[in-house]
Amino acid sequence: MHSMWKAVARGEVPHDKAVFVQSGLRHGFRAGIDTTKMVGQRIFKNYKSALDGREAVTRATMKRVQAGKTLQLGSWSSTLVSSLKAFYAAFAVFPLGAVPKPLEPTELRPIDDHSRTGLNAATDLEGLRHTLDASSEIAWFLQLDYFMRVSDVDGAFTLLPLHPDVWPFFLFKFFSSPESTVEDLFCHVMGDFGGAGMPGVFKIFFVDVVCGMARSEHVLTLPMPVYVDDCALIGSCAEEGDAEMVAFHAWALEVCGVAFKALKDRLAATRQLALGFWWDSETLTRELEQRKLTEYMELFASYAVRPKLTLREMQSVAGRMQRAIMTFPPGAAWLLVPVFMLMSRLKKPWQERRTTREARDNFLYCSRMLGEALGRGFYSYANFKRAPSVWTDASKSKGYAGGGFVSACGRYDFWRYGSRAARKAIDYLEGDTVVVACTRLAHLWRGCIVTIFCDNKAFQQSGAKGRSKAARLNELVKELFLLMLRFEFVLNLVWISTHDNVNADHLSREDREGEFLGAAHDPTLGCWEPGTVPVRMEGAGRVRVLPEKRGTFETPEHVPEVPKPEPPSKLNAAAATFVPRPSESEDDASSYIKRAQAAGGCTHRPAGVGVRRGGALMLVLALFGGFCVPEAAPMPVSRFQASLEYTQTTLFEGLPLDLVGPLEQVLDNRLSSSSWRKVKSGMKIWREVADFRGFAHVLATGDRHRGAKLVAFVMHMSMDTELV
Fold first, then answer.
1. Dihedral angle at the C-alpha atoms of 713, 716, 718, 720, nearest 10 degrees?
2. pLDDT tops 50 at residue 195
3. Residue 358's Cα: distance from chain center in Å?
């Protein structure tokens, strides 16, 4: 305790954290548990995972008993249960489960399910909540050619004593030996894995106090991000890092009683395994472990064809998607939004919900991205060049709504929003302005980081996170991500005060181009350097009409054309399996992927994906709709889609005779009676138009005039508004 209070006096340990730890070590930690909310005497059976791994769970349990961390209260019997009920007005015997340890195949880690007993619901996490920023800290401190040394605390939560008031809720029953036929009752007196408050308590004990004490004594001098109980010491010299970690091990064991696992200790290296990633400071990339990469790809591919998911499965896949996204370019968090929406209002782990098409597409897209890049991506963009900064702004008033941007290179653009677009919220217009700026300038930013200043915090924060709760902003964030993939640049969205965003503000207002040109070279505004030549971009001053569909990327006007797709013979047809819908065809991640692969020295390997099971009727209807879609103007397609060839056919060609009748019945009943009335009404109008224009009533397959005939049909309905 003397060393702790000395660290408090030196400012290395917060006073309130020291008081919390001192009280907990003296009397036991309550871990935020409010015992008054625990009512009743509840007894639960153990899970099958614990019973199947009986020997390993028994070894782990008796190891705790021998260490004095768990008490063995006696054989489970009616007499013991009666005594327990007479002594405690409220207690809980929690169910025990088990999960395998990755580095110890023969061992299992017992898991205590305190959610089932209601203990976690009775836990107040005020003061115990914290964010796990270890990945961001490693990315910040692990600079080019730096070394990282990794260690793992032995026991972690089991080092912390529990307050006697909470002991009645840490009871469980299990076998005390492989030969036992009757279970024994046990009670944890030290922390376990499963309590909602234990991670927060351990964070205060180890990170805030123990590590603070070590820095106070100059045992720790290098930065050391901590993820729960995993420690990553980072420095520019391998010998220095190894020596400091060894000294910290000895000091922590002697002064604080904290030991470290020799099995998980890794010497300092520029390529190091930490938090499930291989971090490489020579290339500034991080890569998923091969085992996890395969597991994630199989999981995403299987969930992409699942019609329903439970809450537990959604939570599991969301965590894995979050880790996968850490290897993607920035701004990919929008992939998680549909999963979060599915979890909304679900409470119990077994509750199910039907998956949406968007969620299944995102699972498929994550699997494709992992397969293409082999789970490797940049954690730092220090090796990327800097592109000229861009200032954007949009304005909205009763009489005028417009937007504009100006680049430090001299290019600028502005426009007026059409009447329909002007009715959109201002945060949407601000985001649309950023999208337009990126669309028009992205071809100049390959391999660069570009800072874009935006004076709307709602969109700026959404863009920085890569997702938004508002669907309208999430679509714009997705467009920015697709642009970054296609043109291989990194976007850095920064908020700027409206009062400082003078130049872009001029461009967003009506008839203020002259004022903008007069102020753009003002050195106090930091926009154009002296001698910068203004370049008014083509189409400036136009009326902007918003696209009908957002969240996709299509080549608009005034943007230089990208190279044409490669010939089909040079493309990988297997990779085309992962391409999303045509509307999302331009999210080609090949540029980013090739750069990440080059950094890691790996070869390209496509990944497979399954075909959705079930839903035969819907499959028939989908095929029917696909074959009946008429030709239209060419849409932008990716190089993967351009490699696929299609032959026109019908559902009846080659169909066995015994299936013709059932198929006709399916097609005849695909619409309700009210829908059929609308179809017949439309057919009546079509026959009138066809007779008047001299068209055949049936549009023949391959008729090159069928598009014009449909235009005549639609135009007739739009112009003939007389009610019958």
1. -150
2. yes
3. 14
First-to-last C-alpha distance (Å) of the chain: 92
In our burial notation (b when 16+ CB lie closer than 10 A, e otherwise), range 354-373 reads ebeeebbbbbbbbbbbbbbb
434 pLDDT above the threshold of 90: yes
Residue 287 neighbours by CB under 8 Å, 6+ apart: 277, 278, 280, 327, 374, 375, 376, 377, 600
Name 198's Cβ contacts closer than 8 Å, sequence gap at least 6: 31, 157, 160, 191, 192
CB 421 within 8 A of CB 401: yes
Assign 371 to helix, strand or coil: helix
Contacts of 482 (CB under 8 A, 6+ apart): 552, 553, 584, 586, 587
Kindly state whether residue 32 falls inside one of the protein's structural domains: yes
Handedness of CA 153, 184, 90, 25 (dihedral sign): negative
What are 609's strand-pairing partners?
Answer: none
Cα gap 318→320, rounded to integer Å: 5
- SS3 call for 75: strand
In a domain, 567, yes or no: no
Q: Per the structure, how many domains does the chain have?
A: 3
- HEC secondary structure over 606-639: CCCCCCCCCCHHHHHHHHHHHHHCCCCCCCCCCC
Domain assignment present for residue 680? The answer is yes
Burial of 38 (0-12, 13-18, 19+ CB in 10 A): buried
Q: What is the pLDDT of residues 667-695, one digit of tens each?
A: 665 565 667 677 888 888 889 889 988 88
274 - beta bridge partners? 277
Dmax (CA) for the chain in angstroms is: 100
Contact criterion met (CB below 8 Å) for 449 and 385: yes
Residue 18 located in a structural domain: yes
Structure tokens at 459: 């969109």
In angstroms, the CA 512 to CA 155 distance is 67
What is the residue range of 220's domain? 2-256
Which of 129-133, 166-170, 383-387, 614-618 is predicted least confidently? Answer: 614-618
